[in-house]
Amino acid sequence: MQYFPIYLDSEHTRALVVGAGEVAARKLELLLKTHAKVTVVAPLICATVEKLGALESVTLINREFIDNDLSGHNLVFVATDKPEINQYIHDLATQNDILVNVVDNTPLCKFITPSIVDRSPILIAMSSGGVAPVLLRYLRQKLESVIPQSVSRLGAFSEKFRDTVKHSLANVTERRYFWEDVLDGDIAEDVIQQRDAVAEQKLHALLDQYKSEKKVNGQVYLVGAGPGDPDLLTFRALRLMQKADVVVYDRLVSPEILELVRRDAEKMYVGKAKSRHTLPQEEINNLLVTEAKKGNRVVRLKGGDPFVFGRGGEEIQTLIEHSIGFEVVPGITAATGAASYAGIPLTHRDYAQSVVFATGHLKDDSIDLNWSGLAQANQTIVFYMGLTGLSIIVRELMSHGLAADTPIALIESATLPEQNVITGTLHTIEDIASEHTVKPPTLIIVGGVVSLHNQLNWFQPCLADNTQ
């Protein structure tokens, strides 16, 4: 992040605009939406600037810039059509530790002005760092269309009662829950519909209810984060991630997904890697209980789906034992995500009429599965956590009846840009995997449907194909 986003208190801003053409006029119009005091210096003044110069908060000086014009100012916009003048003022302002912006010249900007969606007192500011202004305008248009003007009324309403709520509810978590109830419920609707008296009455009633409660009960949400691509999150998962006080997450939750978690939420890593557990499962279960009893909204963020090899059931049993409320938010499990992004349908009328999920997790150097039930014709087998036990999987499937030329795929980092799909047969896959240094997380798919990978692979070209 090259540019640090920040909002300046315009009450204490004294801005200088050098130049008075139409480009300068746009910056002046922006400044005049604030409480800043503005001075404009230019030998030639366009009609727009001249009209704006009549306002009380603007001082218009009709002459060339001189060095002393910087005196008393803490913000400078330079918008002349003379590059040498722009460079000179930039250098002078920098020497005097004054924030300077040379319009449309990013290298000469110590700050940049964002694209703004104005719903005062709510402001949304966006920037591309000057590298993609057209994309930025596109995103702003999208936001302008989905954020109603009435949001400004909610902002003003919240401001009016902010101190009242703060003095009534000492606990930060209680206040957050309270305001979420206000904004998610009918109080917000009353404000938007300009029924302020009704809204205020309901707010006071809700506040009395909160004050009568000795403690806010915590809640745990088991949320499926999907196979890795943030675009595959459900709307509900994203909403809860934005509301969480504490997020307990696994190794398979991608950094891109963690970026979507509320900024001030406490993040606790409890991931498991090969032969190495950050926390035993029982301690994870107890951690969820402990955080919920503090009154926190806890999101247990799991790769894939909580109920598909995610130990979600074990965690819920512990929550029930301690009378902790919970909800489960399904996610796209690794099997469906990986298969879809690899162009391998898990079922197909010509190749597989059933699909079975199995764990390839080793215990005591063995994989205890019903191999005869797995090794069936016209069936797709998906192995989770099976890379370490690949040799055992291959050996057992062939010894229980699957042909050596049965297609098999290893899908590494499924749905992410670095996704790697390696295909082969039960006979060849071990040698192929060693050549390509496949690493976890990798999903294994076995069955005739793998032969469709070349034909249906829409996400990226395969790196190796040895199914024939």
Summarize the structure.
The chain has 468 residues and is α/β, with parallel strands linked by helices.
Account of the protein in words:
The protein is α/β, with parallel strands linked by helices and 468 residues long. It has four domains: 10-113, NAD(P)-binding Rossmann-like Domain (Rossmann fold), CATH 3.40.50; 151-212, Helicase, Ruva Protein, domain 3; 219-332, Tetrapyrrole methylase, N-terminal domain (Cobalt-precorrin-4 Transmethylase, domain 1, 3-Layer(aba) Sandwich); 335-465, Methyltransferase, Cobalt-precorrin-4 Transmethylase, Domain 2. It contains 17 helices and 20 strands. It has helices at 22-31, 47-52, 83-95, 133-146, 151-168, 172-184, 186-192, 196-212, 235-243, 255-258, 281-293, 312-321, 334-342, 371-374, 390-399, 429-435, 453-456; strands at 14-18, 37-41, 58-61, 75-78, 99-102, 115-119, 122-126, 219-224, 246-249, 266-269, 272-273, 276-277, 297-302, 325-329, 354-359, 379-384, 407-412, 420-425, 442-446, 464-465. The strands form five sheets. The protein has a six-stranded mixed β-sheet with strand order 15-16-19-17-18-20, sandwiched between helices. It has a five-stranded parallel β-sheet with strand order 3-2-1-4-5, sandwiched between helices. The model is unreliable at 462-468 (pLDDT under 50).
